[in-house]
Amino acid sequence: MESANAILLRKTKLSDTSLIITWCTDVHGKIRTAAKGARRPKSAFAGRLDLFFTDEIQFARSKSGDLHSLREAVLRNPRANIRNNHRSVQMGAYFTGLIDLATEPEQSVPELYDLLRRALDYLDTATPSTRALLHFESELARLSGVLDEKIAPASTLARAFGRLPAGRQELIGQAGD
Predict the structure, then answer these.
(1) Where are the domains of the chain?
(2) Yes or no: is domain 2-77 CATH 2.40.50.140?
(3) What is the pTM of this model?
(4) What share of the chain is helix, strand, coil (3-state, %, to 5)?
């Protein structure tokens, strides 16, 4: 059994009752876990698996693949205020999407976990801004080793990872920064 602090990046349906959860963890990097029974109403995972949540997780490693078995998830930070502002949700989804693109499975990069944690904590307590988005992109490019001072960080990220997550143009174009 292994454990980690983990931020939920993505969840997808595995079966009628189970989910695949993609996490950004502090010690294991990006991992995928199967949360068996998570879609049942009385699941032990009820209320603990949602976008932007930080959980302390325990999982059993798969012997033959990269889909591990989630055993326990203890909610540490739900970041409930993000859900009160549509732009915060959009920006949080953009940040988690970028981290998902920028990380390789099971390659530990604690600095990327910390960057995402700080960004989501910011969105939970402050009004999202274009400045915050640009700062996140710049830090991600720097930490990923792709920052080029002559080119905008978003361009270097798109070049390095093949694309940017959807929604960036809308976030940049919104007034109120």
Answers:
(1) 2-77, 80-173
(2) yes
(3) 0.94
(4) 40, 25, 35
Residue type, 114: D
CA 70 to CA 96: how far, in whole Å? 20
Q: Fill in the DSSP letter of residue 70.
A: E
Structure tokens at 28: 């294991």
Tokens of 61: 């490693």
Is the separation of the CB atoms in 56 and 89 below 8 Å? no
Amino acid letter, residue 56 = E
- For 152, other C-beta atoms within 10 Å of its C-beta total 13
- C-alpha dihedral sign at 136, 140, 142, 147: negative
Assess contact for 46 and 53: CB atoms under 8 A.
Answer: no
Work out the angle at residue 29's Cα, subtended by the Cα atoms of residues 118 and 96, and round it to the nearest 5 degrees. Answer: 45
Q: Are 151 and 140 in contact (CB under 8 A)?
A: no
The amino acid that residue 71 corresponds to is R
> Which pLDDT tens digit goes with each residue over 32-70?
999 999 999 899 999 999 999 999 999 999 999 999 999
